[in-house]
Design goal:
3 helices, globular, 27% helix, 5-stranded parallel β-sheet, single chain
Length: 172
């Protein structure tokens, strides 16, 4: 747990006061409590986690349940209005900003996006449903992504339009 917290602190630029870092500390604590084998010993830690989770949710506007899988180097750049489903999975070195929702498209289908490595998600973006976001992807601000995004692409717009990073651009 402490190695992950140190890595999270480095990912947040060493800023102890970053509210995204606070959310990550509570997230890491929530994941760590599952390693306690005895249910009787785990109960007080679970209660503490639930109190801390609600406190962080109210204070920062970040909803990051410990059931979500988050890789190393995960950065919450700006706080507020962030909702991440417990079914979501993030690879390493991902960055999200305020107003991002990563969740279910439909309550009857409990599956959320699976996000690869080195993904940058802009403010207000919504990633919904059983989709896969590849590696080295950028999701533009306010984009609504409801389809798979392959590696090395950019998704922008409502609904999101995919553009390859390797397309040649002609400036006019």
């Amino acid at each position: 747990m402490f190695a992950n917290i140190r890595a999270d602190l480095r990912a947040h630029g060493g800023h102890w006061g970053a509210q995204g870092f606070w959310a990550m500390v509570v997230y890491r604590f929530g994941r760590w409590r599952y390693t306690i084998a005895s249910p009787l010993l785990r109960k007080p830690f679970s209660l503490l986690y639930k109190v801390l989770y609600k406190f962080i949710q109210i204070l920062t506007g970040i909803e990051l349940p410990c059931e979500a899988v988050v890789g190393p180097g995960f950065v919450i750049d700006h706080f507020g209005g962030i909702v991440i489903s417990g079914y979501a999975r993030f690879g390493s070195n991902c960055r999200i900003r305020n107003g991002v929702v990563v969740g279910l498209k439909n309550v009857l289908e409990p599956c959320a996006p699976q996000i690869g490595d080195n993904v940058d998600i802009g403010s207000g973006a919504k990633l919904l449903g059983n989709i896969t976001i590849g590696n080295n992807v950028t999701i533009g601000a306010n984009a609504v992504v409801i389809c798979d995004v392959p590696d090395d692409h950019i998704a922008v717009g409502v609904p999101a339009v995919l553009k390859s990073r390797h397309e040649s651009r002609v400036l006019t």
